[in-house]
Write a structure and sequence with these properties.
Structural class: alpha+beta
Oligomer: single chain
Number of strands: 9
Distance between the termini: 31 Å
Radius of gyration: 24 Å
Largest sheet: 5 strands, antiparallel
Strand order of the largest sheet: 1-2-3-5-4
Length: 477
Amino acid sequence: MPNRAKTDTTYSDDPSAESSVPTDLLVSLEEVTGHTVIKITSRSGGGASREGAELVLSDESGETYTGYLSYDTRRKNDPGRKVNFRREVSVLGALSTAWADRGVRVPRLIASNEDYLATLCDLVQGDANFALIKEDELRNSVASDFMSQLADLHAIDVSSHTLDGFDDPLLSHVERVSSRIDGLRSEHLENTPIPDTLILLALEWLEQHIPPPPDRIVLVHGDAGPANFLYENGQVTAHLDWELVRYGDPMEDLAMLCIRNLFQPFMPLPAAFEAYTKAGGAAVDLDRVRYYRLYNQVGFMISSTASLTSAEREDPAVYGMNLVFSTAHMKVMVESLAELSGTSLAPNEVERVPTTARTKSFDVALNDLKRFVLPNLADQQAAAKAKGLARLVKWWSMIERYGTCFDRQELKEVSQALGTEFTEIELARLALNQAVLESSLDPKTALQLCANRVARETYLLQDAMGTFATVSYPPLE
């Protein structure tokens, strides 16, 4: 739920002239606040798919103030998002009022609208791009303040305030984690045309290795790390994107920091953990952090896989970029599960294939996008989609060249592992899934098969992925 201040603010006198904010949402906010929206500026969205706008509101006396509106027209009818939204609103409200003195800075909640998963908050000054900070001293100052506030969040007594949409804070930790794993498995099996074997393997391992309860249950932000906070003058001015907030183990947030660090580098993780404990945070347990890295990543990948493959789910905001992130996450998940399960993976050899006669058509399409389409797109969303399309064209070119060969390799490997000859890739993957669910195949053999497939999928997308094709978790100590 980014709440980002900008310096180039220009507004129209007509609230709807520059904005796609739904009229009924504006009317609802005016009714709740008792104020009139007099100016609007659309801004980049709040998070991966939410839309954003700065609103100037006026009260009866003519006094005005500026707020940031984050809303979602794409996923507003998703029941799961409704539950997340109620938790987000409840926590923002508590941190704006009853817990305002606990040291965790958030934008003050002004109003909300569940129909559009919308929050209207004070406009907070600050920048969200941590990578822009070049001076080491300033980077360390911001990062240390972030870790200090994360410790403050975990120090809040969750029994001191009733929060809407949350489970019982006294619920057994093992029961809470086990229930979520069961829910994730059901979601993946029901919402994905062909479930991913790697995800099923990860869920099986997680279920069998749930850590013992932490010293106490805390408020877990759920998506803590770079790009989900604003900073200014060496301090964090606001923590953003609370839609994954929940009760849980404090190590879940430290694990999430590791995941966000894959694509948005922070301070070295050992230094971040030290800053957290010095600020009063829980003792860092690296084994639990490793567990929750996989636990968090599986949750993200189940949602991502469904949006990329299921016709019943909303399309990703930018398919090409989502595909890049999803593939990178799968590569890291293979490495993570291999480390956790003590599996030594054999390297995958890619059989080189010559270019085809249709290669030029992909090159022409890419050239047209780069030279003629992108330079002439002033609209931010259209430009992002064009860049995503360029990544897809690169991917399609590699599929044209390697797809048949890679399918043949996978069919051979799965047929040998299961002792059955398969000629269709979908049937082979479904049979492999069944073997994993029935525990009739050695998990290490299944993981090697997944590693081979993911390596090939990464190879197909490597030109579009750039440095993300080789991303791995940095050291924890």
